[in-house]
């Protein structure tokens, strides 16, 4: 008996470090969320017991020397983040989120296509994450790239993982997590991501399952985060199928959950299904509204019979105000349905964007609720 346990100790000591953190995390249900340091809540407001991973956003890339920087005004929030959220939940893991530049990839290419630039970036990302106590790194805002850039993008992830593994060995610290976020792809898109390298080198990839149709870009209404939809309408289920078709498997895929919706100005009064002519955003500059704001907006119209309804076909919530403003968003029922979808399809978990928009943690608890029910069902 004693020798058996000593033997297993021996094996644990020797093989645990070699199997590395990125395989360990694959077996956990990921409940992640973005904290934007510029938002109105502070890290101590985050109910971190509802999450397994929290991402602190955004740090940026200096496109002159490819080093990571954090705005001076935000720096103290980043350095205190890990300790603050862990005081409520010591098991939560924290990640430093790096903004890759968004829809225009020119800067990103200039980093990807030169070995010395990639090296500076990788080194700086690891040093910055460690110096502020983060346990992982996230890259968000990298658009799909043309075929000519795929190999370099893949190389970046390969080198990044190698450096992270090497740094963990040198420092005797647990290996940093490495994750990224990716956008929706249509079957017809010639741009793509280096899915094979992503599969091998990242702990997970966050599928940005929102902002498909927005009032600043589209002149007919569309659901920005529908789970399902007819052919030719972007929706999360078809987006995930497309990623899978291009070689990315579900077990490292984390579904994005939006804590925001959009307000559209309707051209024709009362015409409020999808594909109704729209003349731009309503209520805010780009029409985007955080969940908390949407709920208070709804309450302010409560006496005038404005009620939101759950659209079961698309898995979204929607309402119309005065026949001229149409809002689509995710309420508790949509969030729950998406979390169930993630479970059923064998995805790795979910990632919320963004925490400050929740209303008294109602949406965050919706994901948690489902999780506990599932655990009960399987007898844990
Ligand atoms: C930080 O700096 C970047 C780049 O200069 C800027 O785009 C961003 O708005 C700043 N963010 C905050 C929160 O100050
Ligand atoms: C970016 O790097 C250049 C060159 O090292 C430096 O002069 C500049 O101050 C850096 N910018 C920021 C925002 O860190
Ligand atoms: C790298 O990409 C940038 C931006 O697209 C381009 O200007 C530059 O010429 C490329 N460099 C190499 C070595 O290919
Ligand atoms: C780890 O140490 C080796 C040997 O000293 C060195 O070559 C390597 O660059 C180090 N890795 C990192 C990421 O610092
Ligand atoms: C709406 O946008 C489509 C394509 O983006 C364009 O072809 C069409 O002319 C636009 N319609 C109006 C009324 O602006």
From TrEMBL:
A GO cellular-component term linked to this record: extracellular region
Domain GH18: 29-372
UniProt xrefs under InterPro entries: Chitinase_II/V-like_cat, Chitinase_insertion_sf, GH, Glyco_hydro18_cat, Glycosyl_Hydrlase_18
Signal peptide: 1-21
Gene3D superfamilies: 3.10.50.10, Glycosidases
Coiled coil: none
Gene Ontology biological process terms from the UniProt entry: carbohydrate metabolic process; chitin catabolic process
Keyword Magnesium: no
GO MF annotations, alphabetized: chitin binding; chitinase activity
SUPFAM superfamilies: (Trans)glycosidases (SSF51445)
Pfam families linked: Glyco_hydro_18
Keywords for the protein's UniProt record, in alphabetical order: Signal
Record-linked PANTHER family: CHITINASE, CLASS V CHITINASE-LIKE
Protein name: GH18 domain-containing protein
